[in-house]
Write a structure and sequence with these properties.
With 156 residues, the protein is an alpha+beta fold. It is built from five helices and five strands; from the N terminus they run H-E-H-H-H-H-E-E-E-E. A hairpin with a 2-residue loop joins strand 3 (111-124) and strand 4. The chain is elongated and about 60 Å long. The protein starts with a helix and ends with a strand.
């Protein structure tokens, strides 16, 4: 194990179960939802038809759950949500997700942010696997939009 990898494991292990600072608030727009719908071919009316969605179960168009999950790690001001910059890391690889739940819809115009909390750190060959619990909060609401465990592998 390299010295940089050993140091990283120590730094990350000290942060287990400690909430990160939240990302900046980020507004969910209809344009972003429409672009995601085009990319994923998911044009369900609750996402892309504002007039019909107003009369639907959520009272407004909502973001795809997969959109919320896709951007939760990359919101502005959220560099290192739970996982700080570490010396010697060549790249991070998304290894997967554990226990994903979408508890509240994100409506057009809602502002969201993400808070992370490292759950585990483990050596995996020449990589370090970090399980990071990410929570997407909706401004003004008690119930989060999404809670998911991101599995990240750091390559040294």
């Amino acid at each position: 194990m390299s010295e940089a990898m050993q140091t990283a494991i120590g730094v990350l292990s000290e942060r287990i179960d400690q909430p990160s600072s939240p990302s900046d608030w980020f507004e969910m727009t209809q344009d972003r939802i429409n672009t995601f719908a085009d990319a994923t071919m998911d044009h369900q009316w609750i996402h892309v038809d504002p007039e019909r969605a107003k009369a639907g179960p959520f009272g407004a168009p909502i973001a795809h759950g997969q959109l919320t999950m896709s951007i939760m790690s990359f919101l502005p001001g959220g560099e290192g949500i739970g996982v700080p910059a570490l010396d010697g890391v060549k790249m991070g690889v998304n290894y997967g997700w554990n226990r994903v739940r979408f508890m509240s819809p994100v409506a057009v115009g809602n502002r969201i942010r993400t808070v992370g909390k490292i759950k585990s750190v483990e050596e995996k060959g020449s990589m370090v696997e970090v399980v990071n619990e990410l929570t997407v909060e909706i401004e003004g609401q008690d119930k989060p939009a999404c809670v998911a465990e991101s599995v990240l592998r750091l390559v040294f």
